[in-house]
Design goal:
The chain is an alpha+beta fold. The chain folds into two domains: 172 residues, no CATH class; 177 residues, no CATH class. Helices cover 42% and strands 14% of the residues. The protein has 14 helices and ten strands. It has an eight-stranded mixed β-sheet with strand order 1-2-3-4-8-9-5-10, covered by helices on one side. Strand 3 and strand 4 form a beta hairpin. It is elongated and about 80 Å long. The N terminus and C terminus are likely disordered.
Length: 357
């Protein structure tokens, strides 16, 4: 059982950079296994797989501090990469790490710290994570001023690194070793993966595409065309879903599917009307693709933002010419504001600016 105590958590936590604030909290008893059924899959194994020197909780948030040197940290990060439903993020610090529990425990050295943070905690409304992500962020902080040798540190390829000043070169090399797409078939598979519900699959696809840079940009240029919508034509295709002719129904379905997100508003309106059983079934099937199509477009745009080449900026400007109300048009316009000032400079990671604390 957790021993409840009213604490000012920032006294013990904020000094080391956490965002935790005033709330109910307490220390985790040493030597006792810790778990939470709400944690993402794999977190409990990660927490208890190595011996932590300090552990505490504040409301829905948990923090664990570890010692052990580089080899132990490498093993910890390998296990961290297996956690599901979270963005993998390692934040590097140049100085020495020290921690204490809540209530004035003795400060002890630490090499790394695991934070399990409830999304939106402390705000009026909980944050809504994108599909495939849990309600928790799981972040690892690493201190390089003690027992961690940066030259021997091994961070799995798809973990995002927020580097310290001295580790900027390490983070840049980490990005360079990512696998690149090999050939047209691989590019097509990655394009499909951008629409998958599993967050880990989408992230790996986006990072692999970004590693392909010019090749990926040429591929995405053929997939991200501006879309303009003829409302009358869309209405005719929807009407033809009720046609007596099987061929006409199939052709109308294919045309609406090809429009992708652009057809969704009209399909939503049609769903509210009385349709035949077959037409209703086809409309429902088309609308079921909405979430995956939106995910694909969003992550494809993030790849272009990551690469930041003149060709990527050209693709975004072209995509922004589409109908103003469409998701892809809005995303392209937002991305242009990010890319345009430094179109030739590489950024950190796809999605790196999202959801950071």
């Amino acid at each position: 059982m957790r021993k409840l105590a009213w604490v000012v958590a920032c006294v013990a936590v904020c000094a080391s950079g956490s965002q935790l604030a005033l709330g109910w909290g307490g220390n985790h008893p040493k030597g006792r296994e810790v778990s939470n059924p709400e944690w993402p899959k794999g977190v409990a194994v990660l927490v208890n797989g190595a011996e932590w020197v300090r552990g505490w909780w504040v409301n829905a948030n948990d923090v664990f501090c570890y010692q052990g040197g580089t080899a132990a940290l490498n093993g910890f990060l390998k296990q961290y990469a297996q956690v599901e439903g979270t963005e993998w993020r390692v934040i590097l610090h140049d100085d020495k790490g020290v921690c204490s529990g809540l209530g004035g425990d003795e400060r002890v050295p630490m090499d790394w710290r695991l934070e399990i943070l409830r999304r939106g905690w402390g705000g009026k409304e909980p944050a809504r994570p994108e599909p495939g992500l849990s309600n928790y962020e799981v972040v690892v902080h690493v201190w390089l001023g003690g027992g961690i040798d940066l030259k021997k540190l091994k961070v799995p390829q798809f973990i995002e690194i927020t580097p310290s000043e001295k580790a900027a070169g390490f983070a840049a090399e980490h990005r360079k070793v990512r696998p690149k797409p090999e050939g047209p078939a691989a590019l097509e598979r990655l394009w499909d993966d951008l629409a998958k519900e599993n967050y880990a699959v989408r992230r790996r696809a986006a990072l692999t595409l970004a590693a392909g840079r010019d090749e990926a940009a040429r591929f995405l240029a053929r997939r991200l065309e501006p879309v303009t919508v003829d409302p009358d034509q869309v209405a005719r295709w929807i009407a033809e879903l009720d046609s007596d002719k099987h061929e006409a129904r199939g052709k109308a379905h294919d045309q609406l599917a090809a429009l992708g997100l652009a057809a969704m508003p009209a399909l939503e309106a049609a769903q509210k009307r009385k349709l035949s059983a077959e037409a209703a079934s086809r409309v429902e099937a088309l609308l079921a693709r909405r979430a995956s199509l939106a995910l694909r477009v969003e992550h494809a745009v993030l790849v272009l933002v990551e690469v930041r080449s003149p060709q990527c900026l050209k693709i975004l400007r072209n995509l922004a010419k589409g109908a103003p109300a469409l998701v892809q048009t809005k995303l392209a316009k937002q991305a242009i504001e990010t890319v345009s000032p430094s179109a030739s400079k590489p950024s950190s990671q796809p999605g790196a600016g999202k959801g950071k604390r």
